[in-house]
Design a protein that fits this description.
The chain is an all-alpha fold and 158 residues long. Helix content is 72%, strand content 0%. The longest helix has 33 residues, at 122-154. The protein is elongated. The chain starts with a helix and ends with a helix.
Length: 158
């Protein structure tokens, strides 16, 4: 058994669990009719879900790619790299469809982190919730495939 890969697999599984839980929390309330407290809960869950996804991707890119993208578009580049396999190194970590949908979460996270005085817009949150409802099953599928691949690398069959 490859202990480093197994440790990575365990960390990725933790991040994946957090990601899926936070995605579920982000759609608990209908943003269109939510109270300000419920909107805040939703916004924070969206923020945390993207952070969990990014953490998972970063762990894998550090291990298999040897580093992370840098520069002003590093967060978008992270998603792009995660959606592309590296032949003879690793498969794609998430599908192109998942990466495209995750960009909506990234945009919202950026908004939440940098527009301090803005009120949460129920219509905007409802649109992000729509993206979450479509991306969650894609990400769940991708994460299951990633876990299976990590398991095969950590415990190769003789």
């Amino acid at each position: 058994m490859n202990a480093a890969i197994q440790a990575l697999r365990d960390d990725v599984a933790d991040d994946a669990g957090a990601l899926l839980r936070r995605l579920d929390q982000s759609v608990e309330f209908d943003a269109a009719t939510a109270t300000p407290t419920e909107l805040s809960h939703t916004a924070l869950a969206i923020h945390h879900s993207y952070c969990a996804l990014e953490s998972l991707i970063e762990r894998c890119l550090r291990h298999f790619d040897g580093g992370l993208p840098t520069g002003h578009d590093s967060h978008s580049e992270l998603l792009r790299r995660a959606s592309r396999p590296i032949p003879n190194v690793r498969p794609q970590l998430i599908s192109v469809e998942s990466a495209t949908a995750a960009r909506e979460l990234l945009k919202f996270r950026h908004f939440l982190r940098h527009v301090y005085g803005a009120e949460l817009d129920p219509a905007r949150l409802a649109a992000v919730q729509g993206s979450i409802r479509s991306v969650r099953p894609l990400l769940a599928r991708d994460l299951t495939a990633l876990d299976a691949w990590l398991d095969s690398v950590a415990s190769p069959q003789a």
